[in-house]
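Lab meeting tomorrow. Look over both lines:
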Amino acid sequence: MTKRIAFQGEPGAYSHQACHEARPDMEALPCQSFEDVINAVRSGDADLAMLPIENSTYGRVADIHRLLPESGLHIVEEAFVRVRISLMGLPGVALNEIDTVRAHLVLLPQSSNFLAKHNIHGISAADSAGAAKELVESKRRNEGVLASQLAADIYGLEVLATDIEDHGHNTTRFVIMSNEPNHTRRGELGMMTTFVFEVRNIPAALYKGMGGFATNGVNMTKLESYMVDGSFTATRFYADIEGHPDDAPVRRALEELEYFTNSLTILGVYPAVKLRHT
């Protein structure tokens, strides 16, 4: 039976591209929301979930840090997708005929220089791949869509310009999640550990908890805070570190952190990928 990997969005979304690149042998399952992606794996409708974590230009993806700890799933891999934005229109339409484009809200400012140069007005859409699908149905010749090359291929649209994003480094990081963790692997480029924790409401708890990573030589690549249940005192932190919990320095650092926390949950232990080091 063909295995499936779930993603949020319409076919042709950048999350779909991430599935295609990371798991080309699996069937990609489109879902309406991040919650639906998670539920697809929990119910057995999909074997894996592809979820975006952060973008190099716009930071973390809204709500994702809240959803991951509550999902019951485990991070088993990370994936990076270079966001290459293409402007596409109906077959036979020339670029100078386009006066309006529709795209997900985050793509429009990423292509602002190109749009201004060509006097094209941007309109936000819930989903760029969905906008591509709607353009085919509407047949509006003056309208274009900003989306991935994959979306153009799927919906039969003609690409009028490629790589129109303002910044060439624009990349989205995804995590691949499963019902079962896998802590047995050792990656050629090292391991990553992702965890969430809630500090005790005492003076300098975060400062003291972080000290264990410094004294044990453990590199923390990401640390972000967010409130829990609307409380101004119960702050939760999301962290990525280099290393495996079985490594002695990591084990000591986590033990020291745990002393200053109300809770600490490991979300995943997984191999670092090459793009992380480029």
The first strand starts at residue 4 and ends at 8.
